[in-house]
Design goal:
5-stranded mixed beta sheet, 21 helices, 35% helix, flat, disordered C terminus
Length: 632
Amino acid sequence: MSAEDERIAIVSMAHREPGVGQPGFDSALFGIDAADLDAARRVSLELAWEVLERGGLDPLAAREGRTGAYGCAGAQLANAFRLGGPAITVGTAHTPLVAVHMAVRSLREDECDLAIAGGATDTDGASMLLLERLSDARRHGRPVLAVIVASAVGATVERAADSALRAAGLEPSDVDTLADLRSLTSDHCGFVSVSSPPGATAAHLVLRPVVEASHEIGSAVELPDTPVLLSAANRAGLRAQVLRLLGHLEADEDAGLTDVAYSLATSRAALPLRISVVGDRREVLDGLAAIAASELDVTRAAPVPAAFFCTGEAPPAFGRELHAEFPVFAEVFDEICAEFDEFLEQPLWDVVFTVDVPDALHERAATFAVEVALYRLAEHWGLAFARVDGRGVGEISAAYCTGELSLADACARVLGTEPEVAALSRLDLGPLAVLTTMPEIPFGTAPGTARVALLHPDEPEARSLVTGFAQLHDRGVEVDWAEFFSGTGARRVDLPTYPFQHVTVPSRPEHELWRDAPESGTWLVITAADCADEPLTGAVRDALARDGAVVRSMEAGPWNREQFAEHLRAALGDEAPDGVLAMAGVETDLLVQAMGDAEIDARLWRLAPALRANSGGGRRGPRTGFCHRGRR
């Protein structure tokens, strides 16, 4: 098939009704100050996130391939998502269809592998499409809403339509006309077309809707211990995520929990604030309801390395439940049992599965087998360990896992027929996410150390193991969830998209904004490093104080987002500020994100650098020296 004949699939679509000029933008999610974008670009960023999610792609992983961006916010999309394909800004009055036409050409000419195309206009609302070559979409198992048979642009609607129909080899009578892209549904049969309204450059698309084969309900294996993973950019977003998923599961009783969990784990972004629930359907519903009603006691995920600590403690069920549920564990366990049979009179496998309380020798051997099998299973699920340590029998387990001992030598040492391996244990593993085979751990006192036990005496083995891996994910450790769900028959299903948490964006001229600023209450004034004692800073504080405000001050350091949020909380304590004022030099994009994380519900104002020289000479404090950054 030639490039010209290659069909382009519409993988997903997202729309907004006319009236996109309304204020609101999720600055915490995108890390962009809302006041730096106009309404069309703000809407385009949110629609791009939606089409990636609807298409089964993690929006944060779009940077890993050749994804292009085409529309009124092409450059902003490329920067926000760090895309590796072309970034084309289309500035016509009818951006969406013209952008789609350009994206189709790029896909056919192999300039990109995926394309985010569309945008917003003040009169027509907004539409965004995720496009991919049909052959690639089928190969990747993506949904296909329709196929773009042909596209064209022209000086008039008629010329664009004639060109597109000619390219498709169709007559006008062969196609039905749609009002716009929002009218496209799978109910349409045969070919349909859509044109931009009369005006500037015109565009025309010829489409063929696709009806996807239905998936048999309940075909995926329903797991008794299903990990349901949720994340968001801030607490408000996380609570909204929980409520949306809870409503989705309650409204659709046929939605398979395994499919839902697989889709969340493999096609949604793993954002900084995370929470998880493990269980069957009823337990997950109850857990989500409890989370929604709670204070959301969550911690921010951080990219920390993982360590594996073998405690040497006898596991409560000696791996019997794990052996029945996880084939990788069973394979490693059986291999080790066979090696021990060279040394033991009674086979280890028989003792583990028939004797409730084995003798000391078989207990040591079974402990070693469980610890090594757990380690190999963790590796199979994508964990790369920075360190492996242990104590007692666990020292030998760790030495074998790291390749310091052969299996035969390790088994001999476990049974005491060879000298013990040199001690490997260290009492402090530093800032790691540490997996342990049991909860009794004599280490982990360093700041930042997170201890996650994979087996608990009071819990079923499989539940404890899956919960442990979900907790690792919550803490920021990367897990290969696609591998975890392999063999279950899980498939990607449609889920509610991300609940954007909007902050207010001003629509009035900047010179009028300060007039309505609250002049009393509590104000937090943030200065750049080493600028706290500048005369202008003092003048600002004095002006606010004269108007009756209680002024709190903070000097910004070279902080990351999490550190900035912690310092904001410390500076304010239990106070809720009425305004936050960032002096020149403060990184406002980072401050916007940190304010969201610290749940500071106040407007943010910043000193406009160009106005610093004009702030004195009889001007009254900050009245004309500041511009509103649009956070409420």
